[in-house]
TrEMBL record:
Keywords: Acyltransferase, Transferase. This is N-acetyltransferase domain-containing protein. SUPFAM superfamilies: Acyl-CoA N-acyltransferases (Nat). One of its GO terms (molecular function) is acyltransferase activity, transferring groups other than amino-acyl groups. The keyword S-adenosyl-L-methionine does not apply. Residues 60-240 form the N-acetyltransferase domain. InterPro entries: Acyl_CoA_acyltransferase, Bact_Acetyltransf, GNAT_dom. It holds the Pfam family Acetyltransf_1. It comes from the Eukaryota.
Amino acid sequence: MLVHQQHPPPLPTSPSLAIPANSEYLEYSYNAHISSPAAVQLRTKPIDIDPLPPRKKLAFSIRPATIADAPAIARLGATVFATTFGFSIPTNDLKAYLTEAYSVEAIEEDIRCATKHILVTCLEDQTANNDEASGQEIIGFAQLTEGTSEPCISDVESVVELQRLYVSTACHGHGVGKLLANQIEGVARRLGYRAMWLGVWEGNFRAQKVYEGLGFVKVGDHEFKMGKCIQIDWIMLKDL
């Protein structure tokens, strides 16, 4: 699951970014004639991900992110974004955006920023593909960002943005995203906020249903730009 965020213009490709080889955006030729989110959804096809057994109970914990987590967060963020949206974005624009938003340096800057609060979900008792610094595999993360707003919520007092909520595709259906969302809402309440907003792509029907289930309602929309690619995001709001 995934929420969009606003961004400055993309930066050139950085060698610190490892773009996943099995992402949909490498398999698809961007189709500028796709005119609706429904049509876009119909063009998706399964990606090569080996999901966890559905009956296996995951043991995981949630904690604040540290600088040592930056490489793992960058990898997960780039992978989830590319597999979710890659088919709908021109390749050059996608690569530039991933470099801007999910280089290790960009994530380190986010972690250090006093107005951004990041939680990570770590898979316990896992020996393969572990984050070297913590000994735990990071399977999700959420980011709360203070000081942002949108015209459609300009009259809402004490509001904070849920800028990112990402869960590894292989871990969907295990309650990871719901618990992570609850924990990041707790952070917002402790900071004194009374409402939370987010942006979600109009074609991401799965995420919209998840957020509606968490209590968010659509209150408007905005343009989400990546290079020459412009998509429409729903703006959703929740009282805390």
